[in-house]
Structure formats: C-alpha cells, structure tokens
Amino acid sequence: MEKEIKENKMSDDYRILSEKYELLLKANEEIIERHNKETHLHRKHETLLKEMGGLTKIGVWELDIDSGSLFWTDEVKLIHDVDLSYQPELEAALNFYVPESRVKVEEAIARSIKTGEVFDLELELLTAKEVRKQVRVIGRTDLEAGMVYGTIQDITEQKLIHDAQLFLINSRYLENRETFFESLARFLSESLNMEFVCIDRLTGGNLAARTLAMYYKGKFDDNIEYTLKETPCGEVVGKNICYYPKGVRNLFPYDQALQDMSAESYVGTTLWSSDGKPIGLIAVIGEKPLEDHHLVETILNLVSTRAAGELERSEVEYQLKLRREELEKQISLKDRFFSIIAHDLRSPFHVFLNLTEIMAYEGEELKLSEMLQLSKDLNHSAKNLFNLLNNLLEWSKLQQGMLTFNSEKIHLNELIQQHVDLLMEQGNQKDINITTDLVEGVEVEGDRNMLNSIVLNLLSNALKFSNKGSTILIKTRLREDNLVEVKVQDQGIGIPESILDKLFKIEEKTGRPGTAGEKSSGLGLLLCKEFVEKHGGKIWIESTTGKGSSFFFTIKKTAE
C-alpha cells in the first residue's frame, strides 16, 4: 500500500515536471521566434536605411545613449572617406570634425538628450583622406528607445556653389577690375583648398600669358608674363576644362614653377570672349592629389563666364586709356607745334625783317664793310629759318605718317664729312674747330634724308652750345653687335640734370639760348630721337654742366 502511494506520487511529480518542461520549451521557442523576427526587422530596417542613403546621398546614424555605441550607414562612411567595414566609435567619430564644429555637435546632442530638441547644423569635417567637407547634420532623441538618431549630408558642392554665387554678386560693387581678379583668386584658393591660383590674359597669339592675379599660400605675387609651351596652362587653351588629379609636376618636368611648389594636382579652364575666342585662363594648383576634380570643375565653370566678361571689359578700358593717352599726346604735339610757330619761328623772322629793313632804308648810308656784314647776318638768319622750317616740315610729316623710310646703303664717312664741311664756316665764326675720328670704309643701312637730319641737327646743336675757341669731335666706332656707334662731343656749357631727362619729350619746353644768343626750339633733338628709332637704333646723352656734352646714337652696319 505504502509502495503504491510512493509510485503514484513519483508519477505525479514526473507529470508536473514534464508539463513545466513543455511550457519552458514553448516559451523558448516563442523567444527565439520573436528574436528572429526582430533580427529580420532590424536587417530589413538597416537595408532600407542603406538603400535610402544611396538614393539620396544622405547617411543615417544612430547613437545608443546608455552604451555610447554608434551605427553608420554606408553613405556616412563614404562621406568620411573610410572603408565600408569601418566600425565607428563615438570619440573617433567626433574627432573627424574640426574643433569649432565638434563643440557645436557635442552641445547639440547633449541638449537634445536633455530636452528632446531637434537640431539642424552646418558643420565642417576633415575626412580620413584629409579632405575638408561641409556637412549638414540633423538629429533628434527618442528617450523611450534610449537612442539619438539622425542624418548627415555632404553639402560641400551646394555650399561652394552658394558661396561662389554670393561672391559674384558682391564683387559687382568692387572698385575696379583688378580688384575683382585678385578677389577671385583668393576666393578660389580658400574655397577649393588649393595652394596656388592664377588668372591670366592670353598674349602673343595665345602662345604666352600675362597674369592678372597670382595667389600663392595666402599671398599675392607680382604679375609676370610667361610662355605657355611645356606647361599645363598651354594644354588648357581652347578647352573648356583640363585637369591632372595627380602627378602634374612629373608630366611637365620643364615647368619650373610646378617643381618649385611641389605641385601635385591641376585644374584649368579657358576664358572665352563674347565672340567665342580664347582670351584668358584660370588655373588652380594643389600640393596634394585631387580627390574630386568634378567639384573644382563646377566652381570654375560657374565663375569663368563672369571672369571672361571682366577680362573683356578691362581690355576695352585699357584700349580706351591708350586712345585717351594718344589723344592727349596729339593735343600736346599740336600745342607744342603752334608754340614753336608762334614763338620760335617769329623771333628769327624779326631778325630777318630788321636786317632787310636796314638794307632797304639805310643802305645808301652804309659802308661796303657794313653792307657785307649785314649780308652775312642776313644769310645766317635765313639759314636758321630754313633749318627750323625744315625741321617743322619733317616733324609734321612724321606725326601724320607721311614720311616714308627709304633704306639704302650709305657711306657713313662721306655723309658726316659733307655736314662738317657745310658747318665749317659757322664754326669759324665762333672760333670753334670741328674734327673727326672716323672708322674707314663703314657702310650703314638707312634712310639718307633721315641720317642727314640726325647728323646736321646734332652738329648744329653742338655748335650752338659750344664756347668760343673750343673743339667739337665727331667719332665713330664698330661694336660687336653689328652696330656703328656715332658720338658728337662738344666742350660747351653742358646740360643741367633738370633738363637732361626732358630733352626727348615733346610736352616739355627745353629750348634755351646758345653761347652766342642763338635761339633753340628743342625740336631738332626730338627729330633725332624719332629718326634714330626708325632705324632700330638708340640715342642717349652724357653731359656735365660747364664741361660739355656727348650725344651718342647707333645704326645698323651693312651686312658684309
């Protein structure tokens, strides 16, 4: 009996244990099923987030408040330039932001956890590849779930485009065109994070360029002119865009500027005129490889139209300035011309008229010797008038482009000697000796009339300002550059420094009386300069007050 009771009790215990086991097994199955469903839902949610990020270029992130664990979708990883297998940690994630932006995002998250406030920030970060990016971060807190979650979007391109548009609007109020090019160079360097920017005007048939602004590492360099051959800028001309994301200095080994700045990347664009011709270029150069040249292209394309317009405008202003200066020069020439006619020409005529008046009304009372002296004075006055009128005529023809250049082979010694002989009597009247030291057999290539005018004016000038009893020397020498150098040296009164720099300027009055009171207009020296330059030569002066002057000019020797 007692044994039977024990067996029944054991049977009941076994049944109860079996029922509990069944209940536990069923509960475990329910837990596993629920976990599988949650895992599936999480994976589905994660896949959905990845797909959404890929389509919108917006990354999604989640932060567990308690554990501090962080989740990034693939798009967030792409924004940070990290591998897709990267597992973010909170501190490392915050370190991507520049210091100022990190403070902002930390404060925003703390405030959101405390108040539930939604935050929307524009921040700057430095990616794993050290690329600066502008990002928009939006976040909110779900206290029940214990999570802070949100989105991050790369807005670098939109921000740059907006900043570029704002720059172009504000630059309309700059004071002058040059300021615009300098401001643009600075803006491109700072916004694109490129060390060097140059904006150029094309010259020399598009074979060379003149920089309008050159900005390197935060400073402007002096503008230069350079040839485009064997430079990346030479490859840009005629193309909308040209880029070398890396290794540019190796591709152009003869471009010394690229070597000096250790250039790695380059992007350039042509500036086109309104009628479709290349007139300039913009180039940006970096010391690091360029990760996203498309962004640089976008900004250059955006600013290039305005830059081309400013370049055309500055060219028009430059041409107007040249025409204004030319007009002012012509007015000055006209005024000077009339001044010579009104003053310098009238004075010799007065002398001439006075002499003829004496001969006409007092001739019968004059002795033969007095009549001979009057005749000599009259002849001298007539020669001065003739020389002045001749200079005026030649100057007038030269300014109107009516004086033709007729090149021929000329025996220089013969031409010089003719004028020495012609002026010998005039020299004798002032007791001045004219000597020569000429290289034998020299032939030059030039216009005979112009050379006659040069030698005659220089010798007449030397006679005019030489002291009585002094010597004038006219000397030639052959130079190694196939030029003949002619020197007319006197021992006269010399030229003060205050006049020396003004001698060859039409707008300056440099005329002064000679040692015998001779009149001087200064026109002869101006003609000398013009005629020497017509021959491709140079003219210059060496003078010491009280000791005399030496006038030099060069002319091309005939090829042997």
Q: Which terms summarize this structure?
A:
7-stranded antiparallel sheet, 19 strands, Beta-Lactamase, 5 domains, 5-stranded antiparallel sheet, 560 residues, alpha+beta, rod-shaped
Word description of this protein:
- The protein has 560 residues and is of the alpha+beta class.
- The chain folds into 5 domains: 1-56; 57-154, PAS domain (Beta-Lactamase, 2-Layer Sandwich); 167-320, GAF domain (Beta-Lactamase, 2-Layer Sandwich), CATH 3.30.450.40; 345-397, no CATH class; 404-556, Heat Shock Protein 90 (2-Layer Sandwich).
- Helices cover 50% and strands 22% of the residues.
- It is built from 16 helices and 19 strands.
- The chain has helices at 2-56, 74-79, 90-95, 99-115, 156-170, 177-192, 232-236, 248-251, 256-260, 293-344, 346-362, 368-399, 412-429, 448-464, 497-500, 523-534; strands at residues 58-64, 70-72, 119-126, 132-142, 147-154, 196-203, 208-216, 219-220, 225-227, 242-244, 265-272, 278-286, 407-411, 433-437, 443-447, 471-478, 483-489, 539-544, 548-556.
- The strands form 4 sheets. Strands 6, 7, 8, 9, 10, 11 and 12 form a 7-stranded antiparallel β-sheet that branches.
- A hairpin with a 5-residue loop joins strand 1 and strand 2 (70-72).
- It is rod-shaped and about 180 Å long.
- The N and C termini lie far apart (154 Å).
